[in-house]
Amino acid sequence: MLDNNKCILVYNIPLEKLDFLADEGYKLIDVKKEMMEMTVRDILKGLRFETINSKEYNESLILFNNFFDEELRDLIRRIRENIKGGILATVTEHSIDWKLSYLLEHLIEEREWFLKQQKGRA
């Protein structure tokens, strides 16, 4: 994670739905489709360049960087009051060097695996 770069990356969610966070001073980075082949690190550094990505992602993603657990719990609760669905995750020491498209695919697979495990217990 990039030190002192507390921010929230947002993909496929209108930023207006998260205005309450911006109003409180949280930095929101609106990730565009053309940025999906960039690494998370490059996006966090503020780099902006278009990459070629033919794949469309219908999934929404909110990715937190450099937040403490207690703050995350509060933010997630408040976000879920306004936004249903989508994936919420944190940047890790490993995922920071992944392309955002790869990270999103990984998170989708992880969620599907978890849901299958839950169904197996029911």
Kindly describe this structure.
This protein has 122 residues and is an alpha/beta fold. The protein has one domain (7-121). The chain is 38% helix and 15% strand. The protein contains four helices and four strands. It has helices at residues 19-23, 40-44, 69-82, 100-121, and strands at residues 7-11, 28-31, 61-65, 87-90. A four-stranded mixed sheet has the order 2-1-3-4, with helices on one face. The chain is globular, with a radius of gyration of 15 Å. The chain starts with 6 loop residues before the first strand and ends with a helix.
Concise overview:
With 122 residues, the protein is an alpha/beta fold.
Which keywords apply here?
122 residues; alpha/beta; four-stranded mixed beta sheet; 38% helix; UCP014543; DUF3783 domain-containing protein
What's the order of the H and E elements? EHEHEHEH
> Helix content range of the residues, please?
25-40%
Number of strands: 4
Describe the sheet with the most strands: 4 strands, mixed
> What's the number of structural domains?
1
- Helix segment tally: 4
What layout of secondary structure does this protein have?
Blueprint: E1 7-11, H1 19-23, E2 28-31, H2 40-44, E3 61-65, H3 69-82, E4 87-90, H4 100-121
Organism: Clostridium isatidis
Protein name: DUF3783 domain-containing protein
InterPro entries: UCP014543
